[in-house]
Amino acid sequence: MPGLVGGLPLEIDALPADTADQVMSVTLLRESAFRYAGRMLLLTFDDYFVRTWSAVRGLFTAYDARVSFFISEPDRLDAEEWRMLRDLAADGHTVGAHGWRHRWAPDRIAELGGDGYLAEDVTPCVELLRAQGFAPRSFAYPVSRHCEKSDQVLGGVFSRLRGGVPVKPAVDLSTLDDLFVPLAEVPSRRVLLGASIDTGKAFRPAGVGDASVSAALRRAADRQECLTLYGHAVADRHEANHTAPARVEAILAQAAELGLPCRGFDELDAGVAGHA
């Protein structure tokens, strides 16, 4: 009987009895949480900032949160970072793909065709992740750019895709309907759209305010919806797009208070089975 450990397929029948019982209990618990919670937060992080994610590993555990890490340029990771990523996966977090060189999917498909784009930016990323022991089933679009054609091309490779909604700093995220999906509709949504929670870029403040993020969490909880958010490095200051650890903890704390389970993309497939 197949199960999941750290996002990887596992034959439960092949395990020792005690281990099989533990895996089955965790699998059933997670499926039940998805099926009956009535609402959900999909918190995701992009690129290759594994050390910063590992630094807040305990934070995710403290709030019983499982998130998704979408890896781009995986050949940049060193042995220690691969170990850290495996540890995160062992905690139950999802590891997905984000592109070999972070190419913009619609542009490259227009230039190279679907097969050419996959060969250039998707297949090498997936193959290296698999070589390191991961089984990526979901993909986050670089810079959130996607189109109907890219959804068709990548939908033939991955079970779920994550795009994005461009937002201005002053926007109230709770007013952006595209970010919110009634939980009953999630099984049929192959593409989920998110918004950035980053607090800075190039060592300078950037992004939406705390009140905007908080309002989005309250809406998802109040209206029984699934909300998707994304960040990058987790740091107070960084040269790249980054989310302050304090914001990450504030999101996890409020979600826990609201009864809004924070779950990974790989768990959505368990939810599909639950809704069938």
The CATH fourth-level homologous superfamily = Glycoside hydrolase/deacetylase
Our Rg estimate from Cα atoms comes to 18 Å
CATH architecture label: Alpha-Beta Barrel
Q: How many β-strand stretches? A: 14
Task: Flag low-confidence runs.
Answer: 1-34, 271-276
Number of domains: 1
| Structural class based on helices, strands and sheet pairing | alpha/beta
Number of helices: 9
Stated plainly, the CATH topology is called: TIM Barrel
- Assign the CATH class: Alpha Beta
Question: Helical percent range?
Answer: 40-55%
Q: Give me the strand/helix succession.
A: EEHEHHEHEHEHEEEEEHEEEHH
Largest sheet: 8 strands, mixed
Give the SSE layout:
Layout (H helix, E strand, L loop, with lengths): L1 E4 L2 E4 L5 H21 L2 E8 L2 H6 L1 H6 L5 E4 L7 H12 L3 E4 L7 H27 L6 E3 L7 H8 L4 E5 L15 E3 L8 E6 L3 E2 L2 E2 L4 H13 L2 E7 L1 E2 L7 E2 L1 H14 L8 H9 L1
Parallel strand pairs: 3-4, 3-12, 4-5, 6-7, 7-9, 9-12, 13-14
Antiparallel strand pairs: 1-2, 8-12, 10-11
Helix pairs in contact: 1-9, 5-6, 7-8
Characterise the protein shown here:
This protein is α/β, with parallel strands linked by helices and 276 residues long. It is 42% helix and 20% strand. The strands form 4 sheets. Strands 3, 4, 5, 6, 7, 8, 9 and 12 form an 8-stranded mixed beta sheet that branches. Strands 1-2 form a two-stranded antiparallel sheet. Helix 1 (17-37) packs across helix 9 and helix 5 packs parallel to helix 6. The longest helix is centred in the middle third of the chain and has 27 residues, at 105-131. The two termini are 19 Å apart.
